[in-house]
Amino acid sequence: MQAAVTWHEPSRAACATSRFPLSLCSGALHGRLTSQFFGNTSGDDPWDETVLLGLQVSLSAVLAMITLATVLSNAFVITAIFLTRKLHTPANFLIGSLAVTDLLVSILVMPISIVYTVSKTWSFGQIVCTIWLSSDITFCTASILHLCVIALDRYWAITDALEYSKRRTTCRAVAMIAVVWIISISISMPPLFWQQAKAQEEVTMCVVNTDKISYTLYSTFGAFYVPTVLLVILYGRIYIAARSRIFKTPSTRGKRFTTAQLGAHFRPGSGRAVEAGVEAGSSGGSPLFTNSVKVRLGDAIAERKRISAARERKATKTLGIILGAFIICWLPFFVVTLVMGICKDCWSHPVLFDVFTWLGYLNSLINPVIYTVFNDEFKQAFHKLIKFKRCN
Predict the structure, then answer these.
(1) CA dihedral defined by 88, 91, 95, 96, rounded to 10 degrees?
(2) Which residues pair with 278 in a beta bridge?
(3) Distance CA 22, CA 13 (A)
(4) Which of 173, 219, 352, 370 is least crowded, fewest Cβ atoms below 10 Å from its Cβ?
(5) Whole-number Å distance between alpha carbons of 358 and 374
(6) What UniProt keywords apply to this chain's record, in alphabetical order (predicted)?
(7) Distance, C-alpha 89 to centroid of its chain
(8) What's the distance, CA 212 to chain centroid?
(9) Which H or E element spans position 266?
(10) Which domains does the chain have, with CATH numbers?
(11) What is the pLDDT of residues 222-276, one digit of tens each?
(12) What is d(CA 15, CA 11) in angstroms, rounded to the nearest whole number?
């Protein structure tokens, strides 16, 4: 790494993101970033080599911990599904496929991105660059699209429960996963063909160099904006459908009675009990038995209402976390990517773009938490895995 780098205005051909085209930084920008934020040994720069090294080590440690946590959490989800027969359902296979995709992001993309983010120089050669770019775009897009197919599966399961339960098979889940990967590959392939024209040049940056605005729109809308709109619509309808099913008006026979009410409505000697003007017992029935049945029925209805309210609150919380985490993690990156692709004279600082990039990676860590922590079956599977490891 050079001690000082002279700043030059980047050309349009040199500007590109590390994952989607038409972006923010060229080699000159990386040099400027290194000069400003990772140290400059000239006498005018207050940061010496010790401070520079400390910053690099600290940043590397933080990013490495995020990567390791992503690997472990997704591996845990995959192991739980594989070893727990109760989790072998089409819906959980979709979650397992999401975990596999996020695991690939953490193994094939994030470690190299740590080195590239810290050093600001590509030193792995053209072949590794091509593989890394392809993996980055494909796996991150597939992770986002998996959220869509999971939402679509849940929407069908709630709005058309009886019919969809017959069609909700493993083959259908496999087909949905295949569609996700086909779309993801179709988004990641075009820049690789354009990059081959510069394959013989010395590689100091691993970016997708293109000025094609059509591909910027195609990639950003296909990988984020369209899936985001679909997610918002689906989860909005899921919430409305679930709420309407949970809070259906119960039968009038489910009204709970207190002891005083039961005494008031019981007619001595008649052998019958009257429930708010509606006969609840049969002729010759035991008053004690009738009252006991009423109390039990009332308690059951009250308990059902309590559980329904708890489910509604949990559903609201879960949907909010799912949408909130997804949008917070990916929206900044794709907004900057789209704006910089359309506006050639607009400027965004490379450090800010690195933050947005890793914020998107962070979604691969959050996904297994969201889709398992709020699932009781996964909780039980995790507890069994932990006990099994302790026993061994």
Answers:
(1) 30
(2) 275
(3) 9
(4) 352
(5) 25
(6) Cell membrane, Disulfide bond, G-protein coupled receptor, Glycoprotein, Membrane, Receptor, Transducer, Transmembrane, Transmembrane helix
(7) 20
(8) 29
(9) strand 266-267
(10) 27-249+310-391 (1.20.1070.10)
(11) 999 999 999 999 888 888 877 776 665 444 444 444 444 444 444 444 444 444 4
(12) 7
Maximum pairwise Cα distance, the chain: 106
Tokens 């099913």 belong to 245
Q: What are 227's two structure tokens?
A: 């899936």
SS3 201: coil
pLDDT-derived band at 213, boundaries 50, 70, 90: confident
Residue tagged 């965004």 (tokens): 348
**Which two tokens mark 107?**
């193994």
Task: List the beta bridge partners of residue 274.
Answer: 279
pLDDT of residue 331: 94
- List pLDDT tens digits, range 301-319: 666 666 655 655 665 577 7
Helix boundaries (H) for the chain: 27-37, 49-83, 90-104, 110-119, 125-159, 161-167, 170-195, 213-220, 226-246, 259-265, 287-342, 350-373, 376-391
pLDDT score, position 103: 96
Q: Which residue has the tokens 């980047």?
A: 10
Q: Are 45 and 39 in contact (CB under 8 A)?
A: yes
Q: What is the DSSP string of 122-175?
A: --SHHHHHHHHHHHHHHHHHHHHHHHHHHHHHHHHHHHTHHHHHHH--HHHHHH
Q: Which residue has the tokens 């990641």?
A: 188
